[in-house]
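Below is how a single chain appears once it has passed through the pipeline. First comes the sequence as given, then the structure the pipeline wrote out for it. We keep one example in the README because the format questions we get most often are answered faster by looking than by reading.
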Amino acid sequence: QTRLLTLGCYSGEYGMVNLILKNVKIGCINVTSFDKTLYFHNVNNKNSLIYDLNSYRTYTPLTSACVSGNLSIIRILLRHNANTEQYDDSDRFPLLCASEQGHYDVVKYLLQKRSNVNQCNKYKETSLHRASYNGHYNVVKYLEQKGAEVNQCNDDNKSPLHKACKGGHTAIVKCLVNEGADVNQCSKANKSPLYNACKVGHTTIVEFLVDKGADVNQCSKANKSPLYNACKGGHTAIVEFLIDKGADVNQCSTNNMSPLYNACIGGHTDIVKCLIENGADVNQCDKSNISPLYEACKGGHTAVVEFLIEKEADINQCDTDNLSPLYEACKGGHIAVVEFLVDKGANVNQCSTNRMSPLYNACIGGHTAIVKFLVDKGADVNQCSKDNESPLYNACKGGHTVIVEFLIDKGADVNRCTTYDMSPLHIACIGGYTAIVKFLIENGADVNQCVKSNFSPLYRACEGGHTAVVEYLVENKADVNHCYKNNNSPLYAATRFYKRPYNRRHEDMLDIVQCLIQNGADVNQCTKSNESPLFGASGRGHFDVVKLLVQKGNDVNQCNTDAASSLHKASKKGYFNVVEYLVQQGANVNQQNGDGETPFCKAIRKGHLNVADYLVKNGVDVNQCNTDNESPVCSAAQTFEAQLKVVQYLVNVNQCCESNRSPLNWASYRGHIKVVELLLQNGAEVNKCSSYNASPLYQASEMGNFNVVEFLVKNGANVNQCNIVNQSPLFRASKRGYNAVVEFLVEKGADVNQCDTDNQSPLHKACGKGHKAVVEFLVENRADVNHCDKDNMSPLYKACEGGHKAVVEFLVENKADVNHCDKDDKSPLYAATRFYKCLDDRRHEDMLDIVQYLIQKGADVNQCTKSNESLLFVASSRGHFEVVKLLVQKGNDVNQCNTKAQSPLYKASEGGYFNVVEYLVEQGARVNQQNTDEETSLFKASRNGHLNVVEYLVQNGADVNQCNKDKKTPLYNAVFIRRFDMVKFLIENKADSPLQLSGWLNIF
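Resulting structure:
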């Protein structure tokens, strides 16, 4: 009903909404519609209902109406007591939706109805945030008039002014500032509104903000200034304005990138000139020692390069990898920059740490003019990289014929090999560059030169399917039978060449095979795994090659070391013409490979119906099982519905594999409804279970295959049939969150309280995974909210453990016991505080909300576990600062220790949670409390390398010389983990230096 009402509101059809409200329960007006649902699709101005399997609508009826801006419908809903501050499941509320869309009349009406103008969503965003970002001036103005807080920040500490600046909405920016918005309010990343305006180039806004007192040198956490951003974006007018207002032209980011550096990256010549004229350091490098000149050369910005050098930029300044500006210019093919740099004294043979020269890079890119220029200026044509790759090698690799000819003419070594023994000829053969191959051989390249793994140039050419190269190599006495280390011959490589979507390459491959055979290639040469050329050709579907090889004497039943034949390979790939030919030539259709699989089994597993048909007609044993006792029918049932005809061939529909899984079991698991129907029509047992007692219905429910579940139940499947650990189909569907399956099974009599061998119910599983819709349905259908498993854990405990806020609230509202503890005396509140801190701040906030909610509902904050761990102990060990504060305020003892005498401070120090450590000490935590191993909080912090915690504890009276029971001190720990900064600090604070540390300290 909620879904229908929400759809009506979203459509904007007044009459439809009135009609729906006459026929639905009033209670659904403030409920969220949250599932895979219908939506209205407008085609030719006509609304049609579409069921979208991938779309989720999470609106309430009122938020839906506010999005569409239909005031008439909103009035109807409010007359029916719709809540103006109700959140939907995406945490949107009516005023936010209307403000975001700019529906002024709706905003005005909602505020007249006393909506909270400062209401926030889960990200702490107000309606003013959304209106400001989307540029709705009249809405912003009205919200301000009604008391909207202009400096209210979201969870990223961004104010509405931030949003307006980012969107470039000048009028809104002025409106907000005039109403008291803080122009220097920074986000969590310390980005100011001015920072955002500079980044996107809104000049008018920048000028206005600075005029209103914005700090032009306010930097982000990454130390990026507004000027840095303006330079990066190429906003010249803003750059000039900021400099005129006192912006620091040499302010660098944490990566040591200056504004000039950024301007050079973008090639913004006017900005570069402006910065240098105002004192920017032309040689200021980033942390990788990359200079502004380097970046300008990299981008090919000639005018910038010329200006920088004119202003005394270091022309040979290299980065940490010893890459020079010339190197980058050559890499990018910027000939004008290259010529200018060399004319100004750049070293043409300056190499990187990997010994790559400018010429090396120019050859990679195929920049002919640069190559010729560098060689004319004295570049070494045989200078190799650390892998011994020469400029010639790289030119051959790229197929740059003109460069290859030029380099050889200038003395390049044609047989110079890499550290892997790859010659220029090898790499040219791999690429299929015939002209280069010919030129290299004419100039003395060795046609039989092999790499370390014994690949010859001919093998590489065959592998790539390069006919002309192969023919030329053979004409020049390349060895046609030379094999590489796995005994793969050139002929084998040619037969394995992949079939291309265009016939020309396939014809090339056939030509190569014929050429090799005509020149003496051994057609029976097998690899180390006993694969023949016929095996390779069959696996690639090369029909003409298969015929040729059989005619030349290849054995059609020759198997590899895994007992797989050529027919196996062709059947698996579905090459019908190859299969047909091999069978005609006497291939054994019932040959089993090492796994006991026949060619037929391979064919049906991959869904090749025509191949399977043919093999059946030629005498294959359709009931032959593999080594896992899996029959072909099991394979067919697992795969696609294209195998229906194959299944019809198979006689034993109840034949099972080794784990006693029947074909019906497999088909149900995979969701192949047509196969399921066929199997049942042919007498398959609907309740036949596997060796783990898993029924077909169990398998279908586990995978959420609703249509299969429905069909099986209609055909007599037992909805309460459990597996070997007593898990029912409902149990599995609940765990996976398949709401439709859950509802159907319960409707058909599934026991909602059926537990597994661990005494966990379907509700336990749904709560643990956070499937709210499933939880609600199960509870509505009398699932026991306080049922406990064998460890005495309740559904509420599981929901708290997973951090599922909505589920927790629902369970408590339905009388779940908030103080029920498990066998170790751990309460739901304990589980919530123990919930791991996520990278997702939202989940962390959920955990805090859960803790607060449980306490409000009467949870005992002083409940300890059997090992005497308090809630504060657990929250401290996880670094949940807000929870720690809340628990201390609620009376938790900051010095309460567990049975190992470990305190909350000890655990916070162990994890390095500085803010928690600081707060606990301020609240009276004992800094020198020792555990049963005589370890203090300082000892643990030093052992784990948390210097800031170590410093704070020492400053607050921690004993730097307190030993543990093994006589090890914090100083010992610092030395052991090799933290010089910590060693230095501890010694400065009078830490003793034991004799056993003297050697280490001398090293430090």
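The first strand starts at residue 35 and ends at 43.

See the next section for the split statistics.
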